[in-house]
Amino acid sequence: KIFNRYGALVYETRGYQNTWDGTANVAYIFQAGLSDNILPSGTYFFRLEIDKNDNSSEVYNGIIQIHK
Q1: Bridging pattern class, strands 2-3 and 42-51
Q2: What is the pTM (predicted TM-score) of this model?
Q3: β-strand 2-3 against 9-11: which pairing, if any?
Q4: Across the chain, which distance is largest between two alpha carbons, in Å?
Q5: Contact (Cβ atoms closer than 8 angstroms) between residue 24 and residue 39
Q6: How far apart are CA 19 and CA 29, in angstroms?
Q7: CA torsion 34→20→1→65, rounded to 10°?
Q8: What's the whole-number average pLDDT of the chain?
Q9: How far apart are CA 8 and CA 10, in angstroms?
Q10: 2 vs 24: CA distance, rounded Å
Q11: Distance (Å, rounded) from C-alpha 29 to C-alpha 17?
Q12: SS3 of 22, please?
């Protein structure tokens, strides 16, 4: 999951394969006139949850910078 600086979810997937290209894939409100789902430059926050074989999970949080 990736969130913007306001805490709004902008990207979510399961079975991630390192293919994210900086576009939103959830309902996200863009500036008027923009509809390409490309996120603007800025700081975003990620939450990565990895399911383990013993029915537990590991959670990692951090930041991602988008520069254009």
Answers
A1: antiparallel
A2: 0.81
A3: antiparallel
A4: 47
A5: yes
A6: 22
A7: -80
A8: 87
A9: 6
A10: 9
A11: 26
A12: coil
CB 60 within 8 A of CB 48: yes
Place of tokens 């930041």: 63
Per-residue pLDDT band for 32 (boundaries 50, 70, 90) equals very low
pLDDT-derived band of residue 48, with 50, 70 and 90 as boundaries? very high
Which amino acid, 61?
N
What secondary structure does DSSP assign to 36-49, as a single string? Answer: S-BPPSEEEEEEEE
CA distance 7 to 56: 25
CB 42 within 8 A of CB 66: yes
Token duo for residue 59 = 């959670």
Which tokens belong to 39? 């996120």
Contact yes or no for 59/49 (Cβ under 8 A): yes
